[in-house]
Design goal:
The complex is a heterodimer of chains A (about 400) and B (about 325). Chain A has about 400 residues and is mainly α. Chain A is built from 16 helices and eight strands. In chain A, helix 1 crosses helix 11, helix 2 packs antiparallel against helix 3 and helix 2 runs parallel beside helix 4. Chain A is globular. The two termini of chain A are about 40 Å apart. In chain B, helix 2 runs parallel beside helix 8. With about 325 residues, chain B is mostly helical. Chain B has 14 helices and two strands. Chain B has a two-stranded antiparallel sheet with strand order 1-2. Chain B is globular and about 60 Å long. The chains are: A mainly alpha (about 400), B mainly alpha (about 325). Chain A: One of its GO terms (cellular component) is plasma membrane. Chain A: This is Branched-chain amino acid ABC transporter permease. Chain A: It is found in: Cell membrane.
């Protein structure tokens, strides 16, 4: 009952990837990329513009996986251009100049009528019927289409009894039917997982160590001999790449995009929320932070089977119509203070996290366990199992 | 791209003295708004180095509080003089309430963060803005005021002399713009006097030059921070109260986001710790805004978001060419 719906989880995946890419640069090098929404928007718009045949040299049937890769590479180029200017500055100024770049793109894409008839309200996929498929490009059987409406369905397992007509086979005949939602969930999740591992790998490489050294003490890192400018540029480019992939997944699934939910600076603000709550400076943390955010959001709306229907069914008419003060009933109080008010509680929680839990959920858990969760669990299992040798 | 012919057209268009005068006048009115919305931010940023992300929602709260005073007492204060007097009462009320609120916010929320990286202050004030915005939305819904559209009742309290367009030397001059310019001058002068003639102004100038040295010489920096944060938030609220009358801004929840980014631009372009820089940057942004708006309204350029685009181009351009801002670093403290 309180578990998030599949659709919500898909949102958690692609936005979580964006938050991860934001955290990759902001949490690990300490340079707050407040205009990170530029990359997300770039990926999002790129996919739709190609699908509508608006990008020269690319046909509208270009495979989605190719598009994701191209969007990422485009973002790398943009990150290098932005970084060349922005990394001359530090701290607040860095945050502001990236914000400035993102807002220029936001203003541009919400007014440029080339992208669509009504750019301020956003654009949708018009010139492509077959949807966006994740898998191995150009091999049909290894592709699954994602999307709310046009996504593929898939049946797992075989119904031997129905196939052969032999009733005795029914005990081994099990099928699980996956609808478009579930297929999208697994496919988007797969891409996010691969991206997560890639980022994790980079963080644990010598390059990643240099990024952390920059966060801890940039002057010292430079004195030790790291070319910090190059490391920062590299990190920004990588994070831009994954940010654009996240944006591409977003429109691949939603098949529409608006400037407000892509290029706008509050999109990066949401990534910031996810990072702080999940754990600033951890790769997986932002995903959990976003899960928390979406989960709370769903918990506090009418549709989600969360708190509100529960309260309505449990409290009963009498309680709901009780007047608290001046004709203001309990039902109205629920409507005003709870329904759709996730933003308020997330904001309060965010402030509390900044003040008292600066390491976020995952960082605090790690501090409590004394190492990464996976490492400590393995350690504990090893300790319990007698004769375990590795 | 603009073809050469229309470029010449544009030049001729702006050489017309009446057009030029109107654009300059619009620019001054816009500039005084930009200076005012940035003044509170620059005080706080200059001394404390805290970039107050809650600035926008505090402006919106100021707008609604000012509107509340105006709407409540509008019936008893009719006529031009009465309304304008009431407006000054509203400004004083807004300033007092928000200064108290800002001081409390500094003591409870910002103070624990001084020994952390400056990043955390941005994060914290960003969180505060989310909370304030939602709280404001809740209060508005409670009183059945539509939060996402402009609050027209507050705009309706404008006195006639301000709503009308006056004819001065053959030019149509909006009363509101005159009022904005006058108030902008008054508030700029007030902040200037606060910085140069009061004890806390001295502390701010000393603190933004060398905080540790000021502390060593016996300045209670903690107290100064509280006062400055409070006053900065108070001025922000006053700016909001003025914006409430302007139909281009008006009181709404969205005012927060509309105000926040231009205010950042003005402060950063002006440079850290200099009020003079903020005033100059405000003038620059205001004039560019008026000029580019004219380019669009006279059909020379068909891109409606030209002013917005140019504001951010000014930010990026300044940071590329002169990262410390127009009057930054070398002149820190030299207001």
């Amino acid at each position: 009952m309180f578990l998030p719906r599949v659709q919500t989880m898909i949102t958690v995946f692609y936005f979580g990837l964006f938050a991860m890419s934001f955290d990759f640069i902001s949490g690990y090098t300490g340079y707050l990329s407040f205009g990170h929404s530029a990359f997300y928007g770039l990926g999002a718009y790129f996919v739709i513009l190609v699908a509508n045949g608006k990008v020269p040299l690319l046909g509208n049937g270009t495979p989605f996986m190719v598009l994701l890769l191209l969007a990422g590479l485009l973002a790398v180029v943009m990150a290098l251009l932005m970084g060349a200017v922005a990394f001359r500055l530090t701290g607040v100024y860095f945050a502001m100049i990236t914000l400035g770049f993102a807002q220029i793109l936001y203003v541009f894409f919400s007014n440029w009528d080339y992208v669509g008839a009504n750019p301020r309200d956003g654009i949708a996929v018009l010139g492509r019927q077959d949807g966006f498929a994740i898998g191995v490009p150009y091999v049909d059987s290894l592709n699954m289409t994602i999307g709310q409406l046009q996504g593929d369905t898939f049946t797992w397992g075989m119904d031997f009894a129905a196939m052969t007509g032999i009733g005795a086979l029914s005990p081994i005949s099990h099928t699980i039917a996956l609808g478009p939602g579930e297929v999208s969930y697994y496919m988007v999740g797969l891409v996010v997982l691969v991206c997560y591992f890639a980022m994790q790998r980079i963080i644990h490489s010598p390059f990643g160590r240099a990024m952390i050294a920059i966060r801890e003490n940039e002057e010292r890192a430079r004195a030790v001999g790291y070319d910090t400018f190059r490391v920062k540029m590299g990190a920004f480019a990588i994070s831009g790449f994954f940010g654009a992939v996240a944006g591409g997944l977003f429109t691949g699934y939603r098949t529409s995009v608006a400037p407000e939910n892509s290029f706008y600076f509050l999109t990066a603000g949401d990534a910031l929320l996810a990072s702080i709550i999940g754990g600033f400076g951890t790769v997986a943390g932002p995903l959990f932070g976003r899960l928390f955010h979406e989960g709370l959001h769903e918990f506090l709306t009418k549709e989600g089977g969360g708190l509100l229907p529960y309260l309505r069914s449990q409290l009963g008419e009498g309680t709901l119509n009780t007047v608290i003060i001046d004709g203001f009933t309990v039902a109205e109080a629920i409507e005003v203070f709870l329904n759709g008010r996730a933003g308020l509680y997330i904001g309060l929680l965010f402030v509390l996290f900044v003040l008292y839990v600066p390491n976020g959920l995952l960082g605090t858990l790690r501090a409590y366990l004394g190492g990464t969760v996976a490492g400590q669990v393995a350690q504990a299992v090893k300790g319990r199992v007698r004769g375990w040798k590795l | 791209m603009i073809p050469l012919v229309s470029l010449v057209d544009a030049l001729l268009h702006f050489l017309d003295p009446s057009v030029l005068a109107r654009v300059l006048f619009d620019g001054l009115a816009k500039a005084s708004l930009y200076v005012m919305i940035a003044a509170g931010l620059t005080l706080i940023f200059g001394l404390m180095g805290v970039l107050n992300f809650a600035h926008g929602s505090l402006t919106a709260i100021g707008a609604y509080l000012g509107g509340l005073v105006m709407v409540t007492f509008a019936a008893s204060a009719t006529g031009n003089v009465g309304r304008i007097a009431l407006f000054f009462v509203a400004i004083v009320v807004v300033f007092a309430l928000l200064t108290a609120f800002g001081g409390a916010m500094e003591v409870t929320l910002i103070r624990p963060l001084y020994d952390r990286p400056p990043l955390y202050q941005i994060l914290l004030t960003f969180g505060v803005t989310l909370v304030l915005e939602e709280l404001l939305r809740m209060v508005l819904l409670f009183y059945d005021i539509q939060p996402s559209t402009d609050w027209l009742a507050a705009q309706g309290t404008r006195p006639d002399i301000i709503s009308k367009t006056h004819d001065v030397f053959g030019l149509g001059v909006e009363g509101l713009e005159v009022f904005q310019i006058l108030l902008g001058i008054v508030i700029t002068a007030g902040v200037w006097l606060f910085l140069t003639r009061t004890r806390y102004g001295l502390y701010i100038r000393a603190g933004s030059e060398d905080g540790e040295m000021a502390q060593a010489l016996g300045v209670n920096v903690h107290q100064a921070f509280t006062v400055v944060f409070g006053v900065g938030v108070g001025i922000t609220g006053v700016a909001g109260a003025l914006l409430m009358w302007d139909s281009a801004w008006a009181a709404s929840i969205d005012l927060g986001a509309e105000v926040l980014l231009p205010a950042f631009v003005v402060v950063i372009v002006g440079g850290l710790g200099t009020f003079r820089g903020t005033v100059v940057a405000g003038l620059l942004v205001g004039l560019v805004d008026a000029f580019t708006t004219e380019l669009f309204t006279s059909d020379i350029v068909g891109f409606s978001a030209l002013p917005e685009l140019f504001i951010f181009l000014i930010l990026v351009g300044t940071l590329v060419l002169r990262p410390q801002g127009l009057f930054g670093v070398e002149e820190v403290g030299g207001h």
